[in-house]
Amino acid sequence: MRTNNAEQAIMTHAQKKRSDKRKRILDGALKAFALKGFYNTKVSEIAQEAGVADGTIYLYFKNKDDLLISLFEDRMEWIIERLTADLKKFGDDVLAKFRHMVMIHCRLAVEEPKLAEFITIELRQSSKFVKEYKNPKFGDYLKIFQTLIEDGQASGIFRRDVDPRLISRACFGALDEVLLQLTLSKADAAEVEDKASQVASVLVAGLLERPASSAD
User: Fold this and answer.
1) What's the predicted TM-score (pTM) here?
2) DSSP-derived 3-state class of residue 183
3) Mind listing the pLDDT tens digit for each residue in 86-137?
4) Which residues contact 45 (CB under 8 A, 6 or more apart)?
5) Distance of alpha carbon 141 from alpha carbon 184, whole angstroms
6) Of 10, 116, 140, 191, which one has the greatest count of Cβ atoms within 10 A?
7) Which residue(s) pair with 208 in the sheet?
């Protein structure tokens, strides 16, 4: 029994060490991509940021494109976990949830500027990502938007004549463009809050159920 426990402890330690090193590489890649861009960043520069040997990168990732995709999935998972936890605070208030999701997305420009730049700029530089990646994590993110719209339709708050799946993509497209502009202009927190609030109001207004017109 003691031997098994010791072996398990050793395996757990090894797994944690491997996980920590993978995280360091992902963090280093985010810094390097934000500093020099995806195309101009060398694997050796990522390794330097992560504090590992160049060859270590290839023990965890096939190539730079694979690293970029893994970084996207890792950060999207973090965003989804944060959103899921935050939205629970609003109970059944669909409008508050929708507005908060818009605000969280836009706030990346000031709260996580390197991540915002990575999402809005660097991902587009990888032809493999644009052409081949099926975006499972991106799909999970869109599903949150889609579910909010469906909940709003079910409760009579949002229009029923729109396709939730289509509109969730339209919402993301709008937010992605807004986040890009906020990131490039290095907007401060006050400007981000103001513009995010404007975008949230417009998106919500377009989704609200229209009151039935009364006959004269």
Assistant:
1) 0.80
2) helix
3) 999 999 999 999 999 999 999 999 999 999 998 888 877 766 665 666 667 8
4) 32, 36
5) 23
6) 116
7) 158
Q: What does the angle CA 212 – CA 99 – CA 68 come to, to the nearest 5 degrees? A: 130
Cβ neighbours, 10 Å, residue 190? 9
CATH number of 1-61: 1.10.10.60
Length of the chain: 216
Helix axes 64-87, 136-154, angle to 10 degrees: 20
Q: Contact 180/120 with Cβ under 8 angstroms?
A: yes
Task: For residue 108, give the H/E element and its range.
Answer: helix 94-111
Written out in words, the top-level CATH class of the domain with range 63-207 is: mainly alpha
Domain ranges of the chain: 1-61, 63-207
